[in-house]
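Quick note —
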Amino acid sequence: MKTLLPLLLLCACAGSLVDHAGVSLSAPDGGSQACLSTCTTDVAGATARCDGDVCTYQCPAGKFKAAGGCHEATEISGGASHTCAVVSGEARCWGANDKGQLGRDIPATGSFIPTSPAGLPSGGIVSHVAAGAAHTCAIVDGNVWCWGDNGSGQLGNGTTTASTAGVPYQVANVAGAQLIAAGGAHTCAANATKTYCWGNDSFGQLGDGATLPGAPRPEATEVPGAAGALALAAGDSHTCAITSAGVRCWGANGAGQLGNGSLVPALATPVPTSPALTGASFLGLGMNHSCAGVGDSLSCWGAN
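Predicted structure written out below.
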């Protein structure tokens, strides 16, 4: 559910959604007269803004507050009712927070401006973020951190405790992570040599060959047949990876979303698509369908 953004991220017309963490919704009208008379900013491209007595700044539409300036997002991922982005090595999330998916305390309300998840390693560099239905995971300095809903163990913290109060947990035994994908209630990550999944396994979406329906797995479990993944994506209950041999998919297949030419309801191990889509460069998965890009072509399969 992730999109790379080589260009500008445009997520609002008026700028209110891209104005950012820590800025009061009443500003600038809520600024005190003392602040308004003296407030300036030297942040490039920004506008000085008062939040009560506090002089701050507002970024232009399409840019986020991060790292002391205004920056474009380099990656965005949308869940069922929340969205997260990577901005200058930091995570920003907005939307619903009923399960703590913004990384804020429950029962804190949601936010329609991007906010910083609390509890990630101080000074850590966020390289990727993935939003599931009601949970979120990020790669921080090669380690995977997850927060939000955990009813199926999708946070990978060894439990299936549903309420996590929005606290990020580090997933054990997944070092050097380079890819992350979050589905309905499962999560997968990959480093240079191995792919791992955890969480709900009702349809085999963890890919480890468990007898179906599989029990939830709250710890990272290696996926045989998906080593050295070049890209990774998760749908509601299925998962796909690009390998050197082409696209491999596993999990729910009632609509043919695994692309292997069959409608077998679910498969618990990776199977090649037919054709194999060798040379695919990116993936995108919805609830019951999948797509992959190969060169200048886009191939899709599943529900229509």
